[in-house]
Each structure stands twice: as C-alpha cells, then as structure tokens.
Amino acid sequence: MFDSLKEKLDGVFKSLRGKGKLSEEDVKLAMRQVRLSLLEADVNFKVVKDLVAKITERAIGTEVLESLTPAQMVIKIVNEELIALMGSGNEKIKIADRPPTVILLAGLQGAGKTTTAAKLALHLRKQGKKPLLTACDVYRPAAIDQLKTLGAGLGIPVFTIDGSRDAVKIAKDSLDFAVRNLNDIVIIDTAGRLHIDDEMMDEIKRINETVHPTEILLVIDALSGQDAVNSAKAFDEALSIDGLILTKLDGDSRGGAALSVRAVVGKPVKFAAVGEKPSDLEPFYPERMVSRILGMGDVLSLIERVSQEVDEKKALELEEKLKENRGMDFSDYLMQIQQIQKMGSIKDLLGFLPGVDKKALDGANIDERKFIKSQAIIQSMTEEERKNPKIMSFSRKKRIIAGSGTTIQDINGLIKELEMMNKMMKEFKNNKKFARKMKGMMGSMGMKD
Predict the structure, then answer these.
(1) Cα 395 versus chain centre, distance
(2) Which domains, and CATH codes, for the chain?
(3) At what angle do helices 70-86 and 256-265 cross, to 10 degrees?
(4) Is the entire prediction scored with pTM above 0.85?
(5) Residue 343 CB partners (closer than 8 Å, separation 6+)
(6) How confident is the model at residue 318 (pLDDT cuts 50, 70, 90)?
(7) Is residue 141 pLDDT above 90, yes or no?
(8) What CA dihedral angle connects 337, 339, 342 and 343, to 10 degrees?
(9) Beta bridge partners of 247
(10) What is the C-alpha to C-alpha distance for residues 339 and 335, in angstroms, rounded to an integer?
(11) Is the CB of residue 177 less than 8 Å from the CB of residue 230?
(12) Which whole-number Å values give the CA distances from 229 to 3, 193, 289, 312, 412, in the listed order?
C-alpha cells in the first residue's frame, strides 16, 4: 500500500544523505517535500501540518545540525514522529472478567466486516479462545450465508435465527447460546450501509445498549482514504468505539487513512488485514508499519508469521532426519512447499525484509506456479517413490505425468532439485569451518545448537 509514499520519502532522505552537514534551509526544503509526499498519500491535511511542524522543530535543533550523521538523525526523527502519530504500540482486545467477551463490529458496507469477523475469530482461537460468530447483518443479500460459509471453513460456529430480521434479538440470543455452549468470545457482525444513515445508527445503538459489548471495533477500508477517517469520526460520536481494524492494507492505494485515523479519532488501530486468506489478520504495531514505510523492513512480523504457520513438530522431525544424515525425501519436500504456501506469496515474504526494493521484486521472475506443479507431481507419487526416487522408471514417470498434468522434464527437474538440496546440506554438515562459523553466530545471538 505505501510503495509510492515509501519511494518519495526515500528520495527526500537520499538528497539529505549527500550532505555532510545540514543547514536550516536544507531541513526546511526536505520538510516541504515530506509534507507534499504525505498530502499526495491522502493523509489528513491537519495531521500533516502538525506532524511536519513537530519534525521541523526537532530537526532544526542542535541534535541534527551538530550531528555527525545529520541525514540519519532526520530519518530517526521522522520515524519517531510517525510512530507517535499512529500510537506507541499494539493495544490488545479487552477480555471480560466474566465470559463471554462480546466484540461488536461496526462499519460501512464494503469495508470487509464479515470476512474480518471470521479472521478475528480465527486469530482469537489460535490464542486458545472458543469464539462464536453472530450474524446480525439481516439486510445485505447472502450476508448470513457468507458468514456461515466462512465459519464452516474454519470450524467456528455461527449463530443466527432463520427468517428473523430482528438484529437486536439475534445479538441478545447469541449471548445465551454462548453461555450454554461455553463460547468465551462472541463476535457480532452488524449491517453496513453505503453511507452513514439514521436507521443504521439507530439499530447498532440498540444492539450496543442490549448486549453491552466489551469492545466496539470499527472496521474501515484503508483504500477509501479520507472517507474512512470521516466515517470513523461519525461512528465514534454515535457509539464511542474502542478501536479500529484497517482492511485491504495489501491494496494498491495511497494509504492516508492508516496514517490519519488514530490522530483524528483518538482511538487505536488494533488490527490490520493484509490479505484475503483467513490468517491474514495481524495485530497492528505502529513501529512495524513505519519501519515498512521508511524501507527498514519488518522482520518481527515475518518471524511471527513463520512461527504461526510452520508446524513445529514436523520441522523438528526434519531437523533430526538431517542430523542423522538421512536427507530429505519427497514427503519432506512436499511439507516444506505447503508450509511456504501457508505463509503467503514469496514476494510478500521478501517484502518484509529490510533493503528489499519492491519495484525490483515486481520485475523479478518469481514463478509461484512452480510450487503448485511440484506439489501435483509429489502427490501423484506412491509412498515408495517419495522415499526412494531412484526406483522411478520411465513407466512410473508416465503414470505421474498422467496424474499431475506435467511433463517428464518437470519430473526430472524436481528429482534433480531434491538431489542438489540433499547434497548441499551434506556439504554444510561436513564442512567443519562452516559449522564452527554457524556455532559462533548462534552463540553471539544467545542461542544454543
């Protein structure tokens, strides 16, 4: 989302890096460019004005002008002020002293409330909770069916009353259902409109007064720019919201809403939806978002994504296998492919790393269809063939070709890849110099082998 802003700010910082010492005029010129970049990114005008004034005040002080690396000091100040703009850290969902915790989701139609409800339920289940989804959008065609489908796919129950158009009653009865079925979280998906109207606000106010939610979270579409900020103000005035969830942060837009909304509404962004998959909901960390904007990467979020998606037991089994010099077989290879696919696209994962040029990635030839092809080939093999590829005769390969829709070149290439990987791992294991170096690196990081 922030590629354009990131590129413009990088240009500003590059012009500063070329100077050994900064004058007051250098700083003011750079801040004019920063102001323009933020306005073009659709950040609220007042927010930009206040932010640039704070940065300028600090940047023309002695801490920058007398610094040995003034450009780095300016970047540091911009980094700190952007973080302060979006909040000092992640604010978690409040959990009720007595279950169930009730989370009321509000927002305009098209913001992604229904899919966000399912994503939030999955996120909370991973934390050991037992969520219930409540379908209170009784106006949008197929909204209830959509929530039921999402819930069924994730194995999360959905409460509704067939034929009822009384959203308040559905919400109230869902709490009784949750108590009887020991659901400690209830997530209520409410109706949205194309714009804020009295009927919409009246209904959600009545739901609020009836169920007394622990948290009211506003779901806003980050692609809608200042409209998102304006609707957030209206919902907060009507409901006194507790926090926000930003959706569509993976979209191609200017992203001003993400930078403006905390400062304008005064409520924290608690989550960000960064993709379409159920697992693509992340706790919102301002410092990590700013790090991405300033091209510093977001390694912590990458580590969290890996730790959530990778099957630790399978990873340990593979590690033991490699320690014993048995090498990987095609079942191991398939497991690795599936773990990578769960984490998202390769381009997305590389985008978390510092110093990676997003434009260069867009031009890179990363054919992710190769994973699908490799998976089809392995799944068409017998268990014996997966364990011992050397037994694969031409007739066996012909059967695999028919089952996977691939070619003999694809199969031979995959066998060669596995052989090369095992050879490389064996060389690393036998290379004492390499092993010592790795041990030293692990030791310096406080890790044990």
Answers:
(1) 45
(2) 3-86 (1.20.120.140), 101-294 (3.40.50.300), 304-444 (1.10.260.30)
(3) 60
(4) no
(5) 305, 306, 309, 310, 349
(6) low
(7) no
(8) -100
(9) 221
(10) 6
(11) no
(12) 21, 16, 18, 41, 55
